[in-house]
Design goal:
Elements (H helix, E strand, L loop, with lengths): L7 H21 L9 H15 L3 E2 L12 E4 L2 E3 L14 E10 L2 E10 L5 H19 L7 H14 L3 E2 L5 E3 L6 E5 L16 E4 L2 E3 L5 E3 L6 E3 L5 E3 L2 E5 L4 E3 L9
Antiparallel strand pairs: 1-4, 2-4, 3-12, 4-5, 6-10, 7-8, 9-14, 10-13, 11-12, 14-15
Helix pairs in contact: 1-2, 3-4
The structure holds 2-amino-4-trifluoromethylsulfanyl-butyric acid and cobalt (II) ion (2 copies).
Length: about 260
């Protein structure tokens, strides 16, 4: 694995892109209501990124992906394609994943939303999945190993009787969307690559209420749980600092 180290100037460019992606997640929240289509959410995000931020929605045409954001509803694990036919209803849970390219640099982040009123078990899956991301972020510093990150996520998910998706993972990011290293969300302490100052990558755990197995739909993108039970995901783009972590896609309401 050839993991690139970014300079402080490059990390500042990533923060600009990251803050654009974070802003999109904040502004879309009020539109995630019963009756909206995921295509409408995509249009609102696309217009803001292109016309207001003057940036690029990285997902559009990425390896043929047809829309500007991913919208993953209920049993969809990731890479859901926004559609005029997908009307959100009260009780749905949805992940919106936004990646922005600005001045050649990428910021990638996602969060969960509830539509109307969600069931307590759905709210709990969302909360535990966010805790998985936050616990992983807390241990990021030089000397932490990738296995430590996977382990802390797996422990918290499985300790709550959930399961960790294996087929999709976090990734290095910078002036390319997906680069080394692969950041898997399960693992053993004291294994894997050691983090160094200047590394930039995402952590984006996908946690299932039931079994870990996934299935790729015939559209070539949408990933669902095999057992059709709920899945949740949260994602941030991070930089390793001299003594900790810098969350480049931090939203104003977050504690880091
Ligand atoms: N944003 C996703 C990630 O976290 C990637 C989406 S690729 C797309 O890596 F083509 F589906 F948009
Ligand atoms: Co990502
Ligand atoms: Co993403």
């Amino acid at each position: 694995m050839k993991v690139s180290i970014k300079t402080p100037e490059q990390i500042e460019k990533m923060r600009v892109a990251g803050q654009m992606a974070a802003e999109v997640l904040d502004l879309i929240g009020e539109y995630v209501v019963p009756g909206v289509t995921t295509a409408e959410l995509d249009r609102i995000c696309h217009e803001h990124i292109v016309n207001v931020q003057k940036a690029i929605p990285s997902c559009l045409n990425y390896k043929g992906f047809p829309k500007s954001i991913c919208t993953s509803v209920n049993q969809v694990v990731c890479h859901g394609i926004p559609s005029e036919k997908k009307v959100l209803k009260s009780g749905d849970i949805v992940n919106i994943d936004v990646t922005v390219t600005n001045d050649g640099w990428f910021g990638d982040t996602s969060k969960m939303y509830t539509v109307g009123k969600a069931a307590p078990h759905a709210e709990r899956l969302i909360k535990i999945t966010q805790e998985c991301l936050y616990k992983a972020i807390e241990i990021v510093r030089p000397g932490t190993r990738l296995g430590d990150i996977g382990h802390i996520i797996q422990q918290h998910a499985e300790g709550n009787y959930y399961s960790v998706v294996r087929e999709y993972c976090g990734h290095g990011i910078g002036d390319v969307f997906h680069e080394d290293p692969q950041v898997v969300h399960y693992g053993k302490p004291n294994t894997g690559m050691e983090l160094k100052e200047g590394m930039t990558f995402t952590i984006e755990p996908m946690i299932n209420a039931g079994k870990a197995g996934t299935k790729l739909l015939k559209d070539g993108w949408t990933v669902e749980t095999r057992d059709k039970r709920l899945s949740a995901q949260w994602e941030h783009t991070l930089a390793v600092t001299a003594d900790g972590v810098d969350v480049l896609t931090k939203r104003p309401d977050e504690p880091f």
